[in-house]
Write the structure tokens for this entry.
Amino acid sequence: MSLIAQAHTFESTRALPALPAVPLADGEITIALTYGTYDLFHIGHVRLFERIKQRYDRLIVAVSTDEFNAIKGKKAVVPYADRVAMVLACRYVDEVIPESDWGQKEADVMVHGVDAVVMGSDWTGRFDELKTLCDVVYLPRTEGVSSTELKAEVVATVRGRA
Ligand code: C2G
């Protein structure tokens, strides 16, 4: 059965366990930062933002520019400006910044006063160099969905093989 045909009801759409809140000093807000392409914005992205916002007060999302994706060897279907608009439209997201090179993360953490950089588990260990500046948290990915799989599904559907 095609991915598209496996549409889920909202309640069961891959809900993931809630995270414990971060202890706070009075009046202090906690700030999380995450990075990604967010092409073909999907439930995996939403569930990541939702879990981050369960734990931190403010969520900043760095969205990869089209030029940076070329450096990463990726080509997004959806152009940068639209990906930014969709991420910003998600109620869990407070601010969007551009991700344009691998080396910007330390400066981002300091400039935005970030308490934690949070990524999906496919990036486990690859942000550890930031641990001198803030918490680094890797969360389990939402299984069964990815931009790459969605692209393959659309192609298969178009070619009538779904
Ligand atoms: N993600 C997830 N569950 C999925 C798919 C993605 O939790 N089913 C998470 C990824 O782990 C990542 C985020 O969603 O933390 C964005 O994923 P991509 O858009 O694929 O990001 P990527 O191109 O890997 O860019 O410098 C870091 C890069 O910008 C990350």
Notes: The CA atoms of residues 44 and 143 lie 8 Å apart. Strands lie at 31-36, 58-64, 95-99, 116-120, 135-139. The radius of gyration is 17 Å.
